[in-house]
Amino acid sequence: MAKTKLANDGMPKSLVSRFQRIMIYIVLVIGAFFSLFPFYYMFVQASQPSSEVLRFPPHLWFGSSAWANIQGLFANGFGRSLFNSAFIAVVYASLSVFIASLAGYAFAKFRFRGRSVLFGMFLLVLMIPYHVTAVPLFQLMAKITFFGNPTWISSYQAVILPALANPFGIFLMRQSMQALPDDLLDAARMDGASEWRVFTKVALPTMRPTLAALAIYSFMFQWNSFFWPLIIMRDKAMETLPVRINALVGLSIIDYGQLMMGTALTTLPIMMIFIAFQRQFISGALAGAVKG
């Protein structure tokens, strides 16, 4: 008979391996519970009336006031804020990814004087607190005219344009483009392809995971942005979702049911996007980690 291999403590190795897997699964289940329970609790409280949200012991199952909370939110302009956030986030993500891919391609594949210095200046921008630039940026937006409008205050472009040249996006695309073989690009040039065609037909298709990751990051950045829209959007009709949810917190009366529902509806699109594109997000974020 074949002898069973034993571990150092005298137990069969198969039994030890099975015990280790069970312990790993237990730890993962516990970690998943603590990670997902706050989201579950948020959706449960979003379905409760305001008087029941802060009760003790708390409700752990869904209530019957979800539709009433949704109606109260949209009666207070939540629908307009939802459109504002979606429009700003989609337009910003599209333009930011396009600009970052162009800059990343140039920094990775072109040789020109001052390239390293210019790229280093982009990285230095990451060290400057965003709040430091708020006052001069607000003054700039107040003085710019656009198609006859005397100011950019309370306009979509005032939120979208200032952060388009995202240093993180440029850095991410540059690192990914560096892994693209130069021989592949040279072969396309020898076949008569223009530089624009090489970029759009050869370079970009190979960067799809990184482009998807950057698009998700850019969308989340603007979707969750609060500080700058709070300052620049002076018109109530132009408020974004984070600003509108903050406005639900009154000085004396707070409808906690609507507040939780607004938070849940704001969080839900981000959760759905990440679940749908989590593989692209992870692979794209790691694409430039190891240079091939």
Explain this structure.
This protein is mainly alpha-helical and 292 residues long. 67% of the residues lie in helices and 0% in strands. The protein is built from 15 helices and no strands. The mean pLDDT is 83. Keywords: Cell membrane, Membrane, Transmembrane, Transmembrane helix, Transport. Belongs to the binding-protein-dependent transport system permease family. It is a multi-pass membrane protein. This is ABC transporter permease.
Quick structural gist:
It is found in: Cell membrane. With 292 residues, the protein is mainly alpha-helical.
Average pLDDT, rounded to a whole number, is 83
- CATH topology (level 3) name of the largest domain: MetI-like fold
Rounded radius of gyration (Å): 25 Å
Task: Give the CATH superfamily of the largest domain.
Answer: MetI-like
Helix fraction, binned, reads: 55-70%
Stretches with pLDDT under 50, minimum 5 residues: none
